[in-house]
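Try this one yourself first.
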């Protein structure tokens, strides 16, 4: 996890919507030169990590208050790479057209390929290119959200960097954390990455159309999900065929209605 391993301390030039921003975290130097040195005392690193996490949590609460004042439903979509996040988000937005307006913030280490795919579907989207930072944080999301016309958005979807480890630590100010598990990944991801799956309020099994070809054991996967994410709403669907999408979309419409009844928090 970032707060233990220190990967949140690395980073570099973060680009949001094509503009560069210095990530306001401390960075280590490279090791492409030969020398020996003593490591910094562990307490300093732990204190710095604690300070960064506290700062992120404050910014996340600021985001949450702002989003609630805007009456937005905000989703933080997390998964491993290749689970189908972008296709899932695109199909969700397209199928909600006429009911709810969806805006998207996309996080990737490099390229804007996913954002481009969403734009071709007419979805308003802002790209965050994180460089070597393996997760989004509340500050990045705040800056990206400022570039969207949120008065024309009902549901803000944050597509996090493909990673089942570090994003678990970072509250972005979302209402719901949505974790994806694709049938092509096997059944034991929830057991291998329990912090992420336990932190999610929604778990979605994607690529149900490939389950048979992948030899996916549905019963075992659901048992593993319920063991780690016993509190989560679970959906099974295929973004490609549309199977199972209606239940997910109905859930979102209901959650959006509930979000309009919430009071704004700190701003």
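Now uncover the answer:
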């Amino acid at each position: 996890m970032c707060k233990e391993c220190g990967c949140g301390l690395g980073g570099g030039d973060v680009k949001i919507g094509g503009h560069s921003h210095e990530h306001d975290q401390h960075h280590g130097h490279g090791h492409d030169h030969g020398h020996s040195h003593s490591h910094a005392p562990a307490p300093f690193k732990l204190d710095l990590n604690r300070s960064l996490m506290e700062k992120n949590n404050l910014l996340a609460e600021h985001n949450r208050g702002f989003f609630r004042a805007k009456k937005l439903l905000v989703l933080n979509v997390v998964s491993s790479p290749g689970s189908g996040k972008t296709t899932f988000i695109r199909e969700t937005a397209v199928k909600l057209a006429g009911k709810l307006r969806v805006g998207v913030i996309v996080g990737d280490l490099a390229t804007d390929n996913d954002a481009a795919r969403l734009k071709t579907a007419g979805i308003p989207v802002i790209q965050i290119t994180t460089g070597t930072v393996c997760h989004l944080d509340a500050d990045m999301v705040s800056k990206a959200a400022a570039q969207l016309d949120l008065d024309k958005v009902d549901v803000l979807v944050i597509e996090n960097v493909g990673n089942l480890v570090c994003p678990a630590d970072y509250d972005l100010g979302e209402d719901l954390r949505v974790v994806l598990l694709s049938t092509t990944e096997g059944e034991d991801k929830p057991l291998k990455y329990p912090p992420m799956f336990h932190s999610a309020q929604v778990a979605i099994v994607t690529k149900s159309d490939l389950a048979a070809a992948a030899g996916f054991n549905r019963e075992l996967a659901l048992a593993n999900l319920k063991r780690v994410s016993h509190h989560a709403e679970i959906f099974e669907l295929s973004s490609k065929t549309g199977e199972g999408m209606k239940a997910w979309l109905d859930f979102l419409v209901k959650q959006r209605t509930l979000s309009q009844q919430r009071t704004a928090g700190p701003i």
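Discussion: The first helix runs from residue 2 to 5. The first strand starts at residue 13 and ends at 16.
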